[in-house]
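Subject: Interface between my chains keeps coming out wrong

I've been trying for a while to get a sensible model of this assembly. When I model each chain on its own everything looks fine, but I need the whole thing in one frame so I can look at the contacts. Pasting all components below, labels as-is. Any help appreciated, I'm running out of ideas.
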Amino acid sequence: MNKVFLNLGRQPLANSFLKDIGKNTLRNEFFYNLKICFNTKNYLVSIDKPVNPKKQYTDKYAHRASESKTMRSAFKKVAKKLIKRFRPKKIMEIGSNDGVFLKNFNKKSVIAVEPCKNLASLTKKLFKTYDEFWNLKLAKKLIKQKKGEIDLIFSANTISHIPNLKETFEGIFNILSDDGVFVIEDPSLLKVLQNNSYDQFYDEHVYVFSTISVNNIVKDYGLRLFDVENLPTHGGSNRYYICKENGKYKNTSRLKKVIKSEISYKLHKIKSYLEFSKRVNISKRRLFNLIKKLKKKNKKIISYGATYKSTTVFNYCNFNSKMIDYVTDTTHNKQGKYTPGTHIKIISPEYGMNDTVDYAFLGAWNFKKEIFKKEKNFFKRGGKFITHVPRVMTLTK
Ligand code: TYD
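Reply #2:
Try treating it as a single job with all components included. I did that and got this:
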């Protein structure tokens, strides 16, 4: 049974950056109600009423995975590791973005699945790319084209985006070779609760998985979770290793340990989520009050990184362009646009991170290390960052 535990209010699509803020554009801006629920039976945490994926994954999808140095090297590292451990002959990626992961394999042995046409067109020249949503129909089409029996299916930050888990896992089961491995990377629910990072909830994250929920769900589709790894990416993610029920892999002691730690944190109890919800409410009040207080002192506050996560924070905490002067972001196709719902201008850091800035809200808090290294001069001249993770505070280094 699904129980709603968190209401993040009226939200726009996290990546619907606006080209202009004229009357017409604003009239057409799409909003929905972001409520998060917990399934008391299989422990799955999900958006109560997900948005239609056709509204989200369009030919204008902004996120480019290879733009971040951290992500480029993370994908290279995992590709090497998976080759060494499983020696796969046929590899498929679901949600291949701009090919940052698959580029590390032999081009002839890979299949890319990417529904955003602007991204798929980037990899079509490099390897076989299907610009479609992952579902049972596509799985059957691939099998018909003799592209089945895949040894390694990889999917980072995508499975949690697909509302229909039944189709997803049935498709995987059909196309995976008998001893094949399905590897998923997605944000960790345990980390979200520990870090109070409620901004991991936005329209695209239909699910925020825990190990105990993945362990339960895959069983319904003839699959078995046999290993899990905790990762630092996206503020704390998990890499799940799944095989067929009778696959040759033994459940690892690491998996047992992670399940134990999630149970001891009570991720299987609704009470933990209700308490989290209270902490989120407090975080909202503190962040809003801190910015108001600094504004009264005439401080200039900007936001660093026009992230999807920021869309949740900005809209939930009722930010506006009187509180945040502008947002800086390195992504070219975000620059010159406006933030979804709150309509704050996005500019390049070269222009934006100048001597007039007193405080920068860390929208891309998951890249804190990379950013702090880059912004040594900002700190040197007395600039401060503001973060809400794990609690609202200012950071001087
Ligand atoms: P991302 O981590 O993908 O977060 P989300 O999934 O919430 O959107 O986005 C990080 C954003 O931050 C991306 O638009 C690039 C931007 N960014 C900077 O502007 N400067 C930086 O130094 C880094 C690391 C990221």
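Reply #3:
Confirming on my end. The pocket of thymidine-5'-diphosphate is lined by residues 63, 68, 305-309, 328-331, 334, 349, 364, 366-367, 370-371, 374 (CB under 6 Å).
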